[in-house]
């Protein structure tokens, strides 16, 4: 395997490495026949066979740093890579993109960055949250905290799991829902969007994983 | 997200994707909103292809900023995923949305 964005560093068999530079290099790294892709900054002592549970014939995985998930449109590249391996009609593609984007936002902001969701309810708060995010990303520990996407599919169903490296939360907590449906606030619509665009939402591993089901 | 500004007609056309990564363009949108003339500020969404909940939230903040200046934010021609997202979140109840 070769091509732009793929570095010659150790990755598990069938996986490529992404240099973290751009969506273009991510698309190249995710192109078939890769079973998955790991951002180069995450390659190290990790036992990737434990991190990823390969097995299904229809399978694609991606592990990126929080910093890259925040700066690049990784969901678009990931779904484009899925679509190059299995047929996704326009409706299914829109539903997967909309829901997985929300799950990724949750993983970045609430899971790994631990940003108060209500900060973004005002313009001043939004600007303050940006500053807070940049401050947190200045810490290598936070910037390199992992976020994983894993997709499996068969003829009838597509599953996508998004997993963060945070401490999790109680599934009944207001991390994604602010307690009053579709309110006038600028945040708090995440769970409603997940439920509306998918056919099943599971919050697993103490709140660090959101698994979405989509029927074809 | 990309923007095209028509200050004389109070219209800002946005295109591409409006997501959590778009804080920078959003700040520019707020600045440009107040450079436009007229009571209504029209955000033309006809070429916007995708929006997430952060993008929706930023549109709400833009609406609130317009209101503070005694102006009205009008969202025009949402289509595709954007229109679907408005329906799912009942966003069309929070805004003046024109087809």
Structure description:
The complex is a heterodimer of chains A (216) and B (99). Chain A is an alpha/beta fold and 216 residues long. Chain A has one domain: Histidine kinase-like ATPase, C-terminal domain (Heat Shock Protein 90, 2-Layer Sandwich), CATH 3.30.565. Chain A is 36% helix and 20% strand. Residues 177-183 of chain A have low confidence and may be disordered. Chain B has 3 helices and 5 strands; from the N terminus they run ββαβαβαβ.
Fill in the keyword field for this structure:
heterodimer, A: 216 residues, alpha/beta, Heat Shock Protein 90, seven-stranded mixed sheet, 8 helices, 7 strands, B: 99 residues, Transcription Regulator spoIIAA, five-stranded mixed sheet, 5 strands, 36% helix
Radius of gyration of chain B: 12 Å
**Main β-sheet of chain B, in a few words?**
5 strands, mixed
Rg result of chain A: 17 Å
CATH-defined topology of chain B? Transcription Regulator spoIIAA
Question: Any low-confidence stretches of chain A, pLDDT <50, length ≥5?
Answer: 177-183
Mean pLDDT across every amino acid position of chain A: 86
Dominant shape of chain B: globular
Shape of chain A: globular
Structural classification of chain B = alpha/beta
Mean pLDDT of chain B: 90
Termini separation of chain A: 31 Å
What's the helical proportion of residues of chain B? 25-40%
Q: Which segments of chain B are poorly predicted (pLDDT under 50) over 5 or more consecutive residues?
A: none
What is the element string of chain B, with H for helices and E for strands?
EEHEHEHE
Q: What is this entry, summarized?
A:
The complex is a heterodimer of chains A (216) and B (99). With 216 residues, chain A is of the alpha/beta class.
């Amino acid at each position: 395997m070769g091509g732009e964005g793929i570095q010659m560093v150790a990755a598990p068999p069938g996986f490529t490495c992404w240099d973290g530079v751009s969506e273009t290099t991510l698309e190249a790294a995710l192109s078939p026949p890769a079973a998955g892709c790991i951002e180069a900054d995450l390659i190290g002592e990790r036992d990737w066979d434990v991190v990823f549970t390969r097995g299904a014939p229809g399978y694609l995985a991606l592990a990126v740093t929080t910093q890259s998930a925040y700066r690049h449109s990784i969901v678009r590249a990931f779904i484009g890579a899925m679509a190059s391996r299995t047929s996704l009609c326009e409706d299914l593609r829109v539903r997967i993109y909309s829901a997985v984007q929300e799950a990724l936002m949750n993983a970045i902001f609430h899971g790994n960055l631990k940003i108060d969701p209500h900060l973004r309810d005002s313009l001043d708060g939004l600007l303050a949250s940006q500053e807070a995010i940049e401050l947190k990303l200045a810490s290598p520990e936070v910037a390199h905290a992992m976020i994983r996407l894993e997709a499996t599919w068969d003829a009838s169903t597509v599953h996508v799991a998004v997993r963060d490296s945070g401490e999790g939360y109680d599934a009944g907590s207001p991390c994604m829902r602010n307690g009053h449906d579709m309110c006038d606030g600028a945040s708090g619509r995440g769970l409603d969007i997940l439920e509306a665009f998918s056919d099943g939402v599971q919050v697993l591993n103490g709140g660090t994983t959101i698994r979405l089901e989509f029927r074809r | 997200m990309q923007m095209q500004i028509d200050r004389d007609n109070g219209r800002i056309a946005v295109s591409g994707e409006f997501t959590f990564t778009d804080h920078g363009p959003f700040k520019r949108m707020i600045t440009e909103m107040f450079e436009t003339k007229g009571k209504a500020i029209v955000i033309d969404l006809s070429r916007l292809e995708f929006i997430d909940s952060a993008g929706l939230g930023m549109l709400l903040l833009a609406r609130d900023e317009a209101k503070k200046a005694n102006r009205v934010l009008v969202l025009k021609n949402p289509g595709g995923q954007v229109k679907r997202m408005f329906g799912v979140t009942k966003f069309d109840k929070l805004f003046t949305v024109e087809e």
